[in-house]
Amino acid sequence: MGSSLKPPSGTQKGYSLKMRHQTILILDFGSQYTQLIARRIREQAVYSEIHPFNVPLDKIRAMAPAGIVLSGGPMSCYEPGAPTVSPEIYELGVPVLGICYGAQLTARLLGGKVEKADKHEYGRAHVTVGEAAGLFRGLPAGEELAVWMSHGDRVVALPPGFHNVGESHNSPAAAFADPARGIHCVQFHPEVAHTPRGAELLANFLFGICGCTADWSMASFVDDAVARIRAQVGDSGRIVCGLSGGVDSSVAAAIIHKAIGDRLTCIFVDNGLLRLGEREQVAALFRDHFQGELRVIDAADRFLTALAGVTDPEKKRKIIGYEFIAVFEEEAKKIDGARFLAQGTLYPDVIESVSFKGPSAVIKSHHNVGGLPERMNLALVEPLRELFKDEVRLLGAELGLPRHMLWRQPFPGPGLAVRCLGEQTRARLDVLRAADAIVEEEIRAAGLYEAIWQSFGVLLPVKSVGVMGDARTYEETLAIRAVYSKDGMTADWVPLPYDLLARMSTRIINEVRGINRVVYDITSKPPGTIEWE
Q1: Residues known to be catalytic
Q2: d(CA 425, CA 514)
Q3: Using CA atoms, how far apart are residues 466 and 225, in angstroms rounded to an integer?
Q4: How far apart are CA 30 and CA 49, in angstroms?
Q5: CA torsion angle for 269, 275, 281, 285 (degrees, to 10)?
Q6: What are the pLDDT digits (tens) for 228-283?
Q7: Cβ burial, residue 171 (10 Å; 0-12/13-18/19+)
Q8: Residue 32 pLDDT more than 90?
Q9: What is the CATH number of domain 218-406?
Q10: CA 65, CA 406: separation in Å to the nearest integer?
């Protein structure tokens, strides 16, 4: 069953991906897995977008989705004030997949019954396939599928027209469907890795039920993005881009350069808080892969003067953000014809601003160029705003950027200021730079760099007594931090091999003057954060 909706008629101002690619619309009810649904769908070469559950019906019609997914969520659909959708969604002629809360809500809205379960199902479970059709096409009836459950309610009566297609020990209606209307529901989460055959079920929905043709790829994205940038900027506009050397800004600069060539000017600000050799590495990367204009601004004295005597983490972040905006604004004003500012905004940033739960509480300020467009009368160009982080790396590879740049670990906007606890001085920053370089060298030599989300050193304003040779020392401490993560929202500390930790400790103490003790941070996020400040 394919979609009967058509794109709206009339001239559109520019165009978006959803007007050029089949789109699966995901309505978010607050599940922790919603972004994962979108990523799993895109892995099947089908474009997907996340919108709040209460997106107007007219907007859904205008998007003309090939299918709609109703996400999970933390509430019970029968609770007062629980999020809901218009029952008209099921009458649009568009296939619908309800997952967990989305399945329960579908049952309730269409005449079924949902109750609190006698036993909750959290974690691994097994669902017995009822029929080899619909979502379970290609799977033999009677087969037991390993799945991931996360619910405290269950469907106890199906709506008219629906029938069971899968059951678990605690959920007689673990999967149910009305194939005539293209509505399919599962109580479990096919998008998570703990449902090993979940990708097959999603593929059945996308291709067998929605009729998608897998037209989403990084090659097609390049064509779309280039066309959109050219349409926005016109024949004479010039774009200014803050280049940090990180993945997002580098890929954004690469796609913009492909679109408008030498009308791109990149500005790299050396704030004195960079890692060892970083300024030279960024300049070399730009020279070898962009061949455009790069302005390198040495503002180290300015930043370190502003930071002198400041130890409060939030004050440090705000000072760095303010000075960056000031330096960038001063330099950008020197560029004739600058009308646009490029930002490496990613899709999770866009989702966060309109999510079911709203913007998250501020844990700490983030260093970005917010405020620049208003102060400088520049329009924003955000070529990556439809992409997840892993897709940005794929795009960079499509554009020919080197792997060592694309798989560079995230580096905080405030730089070493949030890893050099206490006062920022050139001497302490130089100590941290040298120690941090050893950490990276050893992590790379062990073949662990790309497997780890972040690994780095943190210089602590904590002195302790040591002995080197026959001399007594009284120097600072370095904490080594290494974490696994998929998106930076949560993280687990990495159990680095003891021999690797020993090599790092020995080298740091022997090669870096100013450190006489090395410790290893074994705190996950939560309760800690990845960065120490």
Answers
A1: 100, 189, 191
A2: 13
A3: 57
A4: 15
A5: -70
A6: 999 999 998 899 998 888 899 999 999 999 999 999 999 999 999 999 999 998 88
A7: buried
A8: no
A9: 3.40.50.620
A10: 32
Percentage of residues in the chain having pLDDT higher than 70: 90
CB atoms within 10 A of CB 252: 31
Contact status, residue 260 vs residue 252, Cβ threshold 8 Å: no
**364, pLDDT greater than 50:** no
The single-letter DSSP state of residue 72 is: -
| Structure-token pair, residue 25 | 């619309």
Instruction: Tokens 């996360």: give the residue.
Output: 150
Query: In this structure, are residues 166 and 149 in contact, taking their beta carbons and an 8 Å threshold?
Result: no
17-209 and 218-406 share one CATH topology?
yes
Query: Which strands make up the sheet holding 47-52, listed edge to edge?
Result: 47-52, 23-28, 67-70, 96-99, 183-186, 175-178, 163-167, 113-129, 144-157
pTM: 0.77
CATH for 419-520? 3.30.300.10
- The pLDDT assigned to 202 comes to 97
Element of type H or E holding 258: helix 247-260
321, 372 contact by CB (below 8 A): no
**Is domain 17-209 annotated with CATH 3.50.50.60?**
no
DSSP 359: S
3-state helix vs strand vs coil in the chain, percent to 5: 35, 25, 40
- Specify the DSSP class assigned to residue 201: H
Task: Residue 194: name the closest of 149, 138, 136, 143 by CA.
Answer: 149
The conformational region for residue 324 under phi > 0 = left, psi -120 to 50 = alpha, else beta, is alpha
Q: What is the dihedral of CA 395, 398, 402, 406, to 10 degrees?
A: 20
Domain regions of the chain by residue span: 17-209, 218-406, 419-520
Rounded to an integer, the average pLDDT of 193-208 is 94
Instruction: Give residue 376's pLDDT.
Output: 64
Query: For residue range 124-148, what is the model confidence (pLDDT) as tens digits?
Result: 889 999 888 899 999 888 889 999 8
pLDDT in tens, 365-394: 444 444 555 666 788 899 998 898 889 999
Residue 355: predicted pLDDT: 56
